[in-house]
Each structure stands twice: as C-alpha cells, then as structure tokens.
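hey so u asked for the seq, here:
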Amino acid sequence: MDTSLKRTPLFTAHVEAGARMVPFGGWEMPVQYTGIVEEHRTVRAAAGCFDVSHMGEFEVDGPGALAALQRLTTNDVAALEIGQVQYSVLCHPHGGIVDDLTVYRLAADRYMITVNAGNIAKDWAHVTHHGPAARWRNVSDETGLIAVQGPKAEALVGRLADVDVTRIGYYRFAPGKVAGAGTLISRTGYTGEDGFELYVAAADTARLWKALLEAGRADGVAPIGLGARDTLRLEMRYALYGNDIDDTTNPLEAGLGWVVKPAKGEFIGREAIERVRAAGPARRLVGLEMTERSVPRHGYPVLKDGAPTGVVTSGSYGPSVDRYIALAYVATPHAAVGTELGVEIRGQAKGARVVKTPFHPSRVKKG
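ran it, structure tokens below
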C-alpha cells in the first residue's frame, strides 16, 4: 500500500465495504464496490453516494475578494447572488486552462471555490499569486464532501435535512443540517442526474455517509466509486481535467466558451482566448460514437481517411446509451456532426462518427 497517498475521512468506510482502492490525483480512492456498470445504473435508476472529499476548497473574503476572482476566473463573478454557484475556469496568460472549478458566493464579500483534487497545490499557488489583495484560506483538509446523485437523491437528502431541499434551485445552495451535521447543501453534481453535493466538516463526514446509506438502503441507494463517476460524466460530455482539458487546451476549443465573459473586463488569459475566438479554434472537442465494436481510450489517434486528425481524450462503454463513446479533439474541418472518422486501436482503424452531445439527456432539475 502506497503510504504517500492521501486518504479521505471515508477511507475506512470504503475498505470495510469491500471497495477496490486505487491511486487518483494523489489520493487513495474507491474505483468500484460491486462493479462499474452496476453502480452506474444505480445512479441513473435510484441514487448513489460518492466520496468526493478529495476535492479542494479555498475560501476568499474581504473587500478585494470579488476583484480577485474577476481577475482569476473567466466567468462573471459579479453576476452571482448570495446562495448561487457558478461554473468557471482559471487560465494561464497563454489561454491554457489551469483548472475548472465552481465558485460559491457565501456572503456579500465572501466566496468559496472548489477545485480538482490533483490540482490543489497548483491552484493554491496560482490564486494566491494572482489575487494577493484578497484574504485566502485553504480549507481542503478540514472539509468533507459527499455527492448524492440520482432520481431519488432529493427525497433521500430531504428526509435527513432540517431545511426544505426542494426549494434549493439548480446551481444554488443553502446552509442547513443533514443527519444532524452542519452542511452546505449544494444542488450541483457531475452525473447529469438531479442531486446534491454536501459540504461538511471532515470530522462529520463518516457519520453523514453512514446516515445517507442507511436511510437510502430501502430505495436501492448505494456507494459509488470513481469508475462509475467517470462513465456517468462522460455520457454527459462533462470535461475531466487532465484528460479533456489541461494547461495546453483553450476554453473555446474545449467547448467552454459559455463560461468565458470578455465583456466583464480584464482577466488572466483574456487576450489569448480572444485571439483564438477571432481566428476560430483549429481543433474542437467533439463526441464520438464507435460504429465498430471497439473501446476508444485516452491517447488513441483519431483518423480521417487514414490520416491523423486528432486524439481521444476520454472513452468508454456508456452503460446508459449501450454504445462505446468518446470525447476527442479533432481538426475543426472534421468536427461537424455526422463526420465519419476512425480511431486507431492496436494498430487498426476502427470506425467512429461525430455525434451530438451529451450522449445521454440531462435530468438535472433546473426549474
């Protein structure tokens, strides 16, 4: 066992439940309990509980907080109301993506950002260097995070909460108690299903996890590993940092132009992104459906008429769509829906087609 890997407050619970543990972003995390396909289908049909306590959380406050976040992120933080969440990205001056993240407006001059586990150190260095006028606090180690996702998630969380969770809108949050633990209840997720992400003190995480699973057992609620989390997000075309986006990718080519708001004023990477907008991205992140029975994997070459045109960034069997699917960067002339392509798999070109995404319809509650 690699003692250099970090462990979440739920490590013991995962081991006791028989989870297969793997390294992920510097953490020892459960990849599956009963099986990826079964767990995937549990989330789509009932609800699943995910340990995402490895994610990072930074709080930023003071009179300089808004200005710092406006300079750091591409989206317009000034548009956020208290109790609202925003998806955004941090960029380098050259336009590459430092990380994707969510921004929470906790109070008039107090915010929280949630960042990817493998990027905590990099992001902390980035935000404190470029936003020194604000007060920053890294609360990652003292924060636990459980995602409850699926059509039965609202009823499950509602049974344990002391607030009416039906009144929490999509990309909104409210403070409350869930199973007696002080919780920031956020209607967000990474699966395309309705549900919540529950931020709690690290010391309360194991108690909340146990309460959720016990209260949901009769409804088929189960713990879900990172394997199913990956197939669920892939069916929704949600980007995974390190696979689909990274320091070398521009938000516009990644299909994230909707979170880039140049009209708000200057931010890091704005000039480089706007140059790409003016010229048009040379490549685009597209959805692929395999027309031959083959599994596309990260790094596999994408071909057009036998010649290279791009690369697969994420690929798998999609249990809800019963197809082998992928995300891939391809040259813009070959990015139109319906374009016939190939994926080189073990030296052979296997048929693929550019398709409309998401692969599976979203069922988040946006009303």
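Residues 11-53+141-235 form a domain with the Gyrase A; domain 2 fold (CATH 3.30.1360.120). The chain has a mean pLDDT of 97.
lmk if thats what u needed
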